[in-house]
Amino acid sequence: MTMFPNLFEATTEYWQQLDDIESRYQQGELSIEEVDREVEMLMKQLGQKRRESLRFFRDSLSHWISTHTEFLIGLLFVLMVAYSWILAVNN
Predict the structure, then answer these.
(1) What is the C-alpha separation between 66 and 63, in angstroms, rounded?
(2) For the chain, which terminus, N or C, has the lower number of CB atoms within 10 Å?
(3) Phi and psi (nearest 5°) for 79?
(4) 17 neighbors 40 (Cβ within 8 angstroms)
(5) Distance (Å, rounded) from C-alpha 7 to C-alpha 55?
């Protein structure tokens, strides 16, 4: 498995880069069109990080379920027996 993509760090970097773009715009270093292009690029990068994080979570969960299938089946069986017993006691 790969390392977990740090979405919090990526979001922090995104906001810092937005602040930098705003500062450069206010100083007249960027035109509004350049700001739009840079912001669009940053949004795409952050979206990619979010997709990587979601994919990693999904793959990790799938791997965990496949390696713990017997445990999950056993737990489900115990829960069903306990629920049945509670129903029988209350009737």
Answers:
(1) 5
(2) C
(3) -65, -40
(4) no
(5) 12
